[in-house]
Amino acid sequence: MKIDLKGINIGEKYFPFIIAEMSGNHNHSIERAVSIVDAVADAGAHAIKLQTYTADTLTIQGAYTITDKKSLWYGKELYDLYKEAYTPWEWHEKLFARAKEKGIICFSTPFDETSVDFLEKLGNPIYKIASFENNYHHLLQKVAQTGKPVIMSTGISTREELTESVDVLRRNGCTELTLLKCTSSYPASPESSNINTIPDLQKTFNCQVGLSDHTLGIGVAVASIALGAVVIEKHFTLDRSEGGVDSAFSLEPHELKLLVDETKRAWLSLGKISYDITQEEEGSRAFKRSIYASANIKKGEELGRDNIRIIRPGFGLAPKFYDQVVGKKAKTDIKTGTPLTRDLIE
Question: Who is most buried in 40, 231, 233, 318, counting CB within 10 A?
């Protein structure tokens, strides 16, 4: 996947693509939202992601109140939660422009067809489908028909449901698809992340795969790189102590920078299948063991355990020749500390 901004690419040949999710952590302050964009750019992430909806495009008042006592949003009515969390549509243009100034990508998750129309007018470069919307086939059709790259989360979905969703996207023109392994609990536990699914997703759906991560910290995200994740999405806030609907499981600026740095290191470490000695290791070969004279040895004296040893460094005969050398005679005088070589043995 190639994004039209400074040649940024997404794929196994490139550094992991890091997305910071603003969600509702702007706390209804446009100044804070702009500061979040700036902090994401400063941390070295590639993209800031918005969510484009209103409470009325998601639900209706009185439809449901969250009853799960373990939920961060226990007791809230859905309509009120979404009203608190939404990003005003009139902010989008300013946030897109600010991201462009900062050299990062701004894109969004639409939650209905009207939000796709709105985002198309802004030149939205990528569409993200949220886990809770990946069964909304009318939305998938609309998004796919834009011809833009699509990133879709897989949370709360069976393999069969994902197959249906991917089919809808591809039948409607989506040619650049990335699926994000996702556990839709907030926060998610590492134990429920099951990131070993990543290679299977890649194989099953023949597409790029990444991780939408709701765990605390960056450990799960970094580990996913070793399994083939090419995209990492994490929620982001300026300061968890200042609150926000998603702040409890969001990264702060120093953590986002650490995520960027450590996923790069993880990606660089993958390399290739190799049993060769690397160029960096060449100098270290000298510190392997070899056979040395451990005492002064006279010409004609027999070599044995009292005058030769297997020690570091590695300038003498390899340790595997030790038993062959024992009992042989010195061809010349050998001083203590001399690496034993074949020309010194009769």
Answer: 40
